[in-house]
């Protein structure tokens, strides 16, 4: 008798963050042909007057050398949750002012597992201190996505930024 031991495995995760598609945008052939004349600003809309680093490596180097904490925002262009958070972040005057005290980086995806302590969802915001330790202890309000913030959580993100700066003074 032929035995069919085929069990379909479907894991449906219902979360309000956007799934991170590894190949999203990679197959675009447009990238190679039509290059825009001016590079998009590194802020990508998160704060055009702020100084943003280009790569994770550069950000780590600058955090260590300047003794400033690093704030990393993971987001995706086609994620409505990323877009919504970006809008309130960019329009929040106190956050924009406080952000000047950080080394700043926004990314679409990362290969460093330390930057995805509980998964690769977006948007997520992580802080790294100048000793280059990921501050996994600075979290948002969702237990299933510790580093996620929604527009309504913007004041929590602000106080977490203050926390990241305070830790700096007490620990170093």
Task: Tell me what you see in this structure.
Residues 1-21 form the signal peptide. Keywords: Endoplasmic reticulum, Secreted, Signal. Its main location: endoplasmic reticulum. The protein is of the alpha+beta class and 172 residues long. The chain has a domain at 56-165: Glutaredoxin (3-Layer(aba) Sandwich), CATH 3.40.30.10. Helices cover 30% and strands 9% of the residues. The protein has helices at 30-33, 56-66, 80-91, 93-99, 154-171, and strands spanning 70-74, 103-107, 124-128. Strands 2-1-3 form a three-stranded mixed sheet, covered by helices on one side. The longest helix is centred in the C-terminal third of the chain and has 18 residues, at 154-171.
Shape: globular
| DSSP strand count | 3
Could you list the spans in which at least 5 consecutive residues all have pLDDT below 50? 6-16, 20-33
Percent of residues in helices comes to 25-40%
Task: Give the termini distance in whole angstroms.
Answer: 70 Å
Topology:
Blueprint: H1 30-33, H2 56-66, E1 70-74, H3 80-91, H4 93-99, E2 103-107, E3 124-128, H5 154-171
Parallel strand pairs: 1-2
Antiparallel strand pairs: 1-3
Helix pairs in contact: 4-5
Q: How do you describe this structure in short?
A:
This protein is of the alpha+beta class. It contains five helices and three strands; from the N terminus they run H-H-E-H-H-E-E-H.
